[in-house]
Amino acid sequence: MSKIVVHRKGIPELNMVSFFTKAITVYIATYIERREKVKSRMKKFGIHLGIIGALTIALLLGTLWYLDIYTNHDSTLIEVEDLEGLTAVKAIERLEAIGLQSEVTDTVYKDGAKKLSVINQNPQAGLMVKPNRKVYLVINTDNVPMVMVPDLAEKTSLPQARNILLRRNLKVGKVTKKVSSSVRTKNDEPVLAQYEAGTTNVLKAGTLIERNSEIDLVVGISSDYYSDSTSAYDTPLEAPIE
């Protein structure tokens, strides 16, 4: 029996070198092409980034320039005056005279302050500010809260009357002493009558008067006190009453 011999045809070495050379050449060409594209994109990105940066700087400089003009950066500073206690009209006139503006932000009631007077300001007195700066003012209202007059006559002593009026935000005005036969000792100081401050008008209990108003009182004293040459009050004694 004869043998069949199969011969495998091989690739010549020259063809193998040519194949790998072409593959490497194509790879290098592709790599270079891609790198050039990346460089081109990076260049465009750099240009865009530079444009954005330039616009940002220009915008920032423009904003600073505007603020410099708006706030009068180079202007001479002005010292804020003390306006508290002045009437609102007077305070506004003073501010305008030194080159400042004003704005009333609120009206409230403050014990002891004059009606329509400045009770608070911002900025505070003594601070240095730029021209045309606005000073905010709080004004004491002229709408004073009303308080009901208590019933003091023939029901309280002078110390009791003082305490009652104090609790109601009222004050004792002029105290007049009169001798009364109903008063037995020097320590008795009954309130005999109550009047509107500075008048002879009887002030009835329940009447509404402004907060912090004064009420004049007539206080009874004993005849022994009346005969004493030393008085605990500055007000002269009046004629005895029964």
Q: Key features?
A:
242 residues, alpha/beta, Trypsin Inhibitor V, Chain A, three-stranded mixed β-sheet, 4 helices
Give a written overview of the molecule.
There is one protein chain. The protein is of the alpha/beta class. It has 3 domains: 13-70; 78-140, Trypsin Inhibitor V, Chain A (2-Layer Sandwich), CATH 3.30.10.20; 146-227, Trypsin Inhibitor V, Chain A (2-Layer Sandwich), CATH 3.30.10.20. Helices cover 34% and strands 22% of the residues. The strands form 4 sheets. The chain has a 3-stranded mixed β-sheet, with helices on one face. Strands 7-10-8 form a 3-stranded mixed β-sheet. The protein is rod-shaped, with a radius of gyration of 49 Å.
**Broad CATH class of the largest domain:** Alpha Beta
Number of strands: 10
CATH fold assignment of the largest domain = Trypsin Inhibitor V, Chain A
- How much strand content do the residues show? 15-25%
Any idea how many domains?
A: 3
Q: Determine the number of helices (DSSP H or I, runs of at least 4 residues).
A: 4
Pick out the low-confidence regions.
Answer: 228-242
Secondary-structure blueprint:
Blueprint: H1 13-70, E1 78-79, H2 88-97, E2 101-108, E3 118-122, E4 128-129, E5 134-140, E6 146-148, H3 158-167, E7 171-179, E8 191-196, E9 208-210, E10 214-221, H4 223-227
At a glance:
With 242 residues, this protein is α/β, with parallel strands linked by helices. The protein contains four helices and ten strands, in the order H-E-H-E-E-E-E-E-H-E-E-E-E-H. The C terminus is likely disordered.
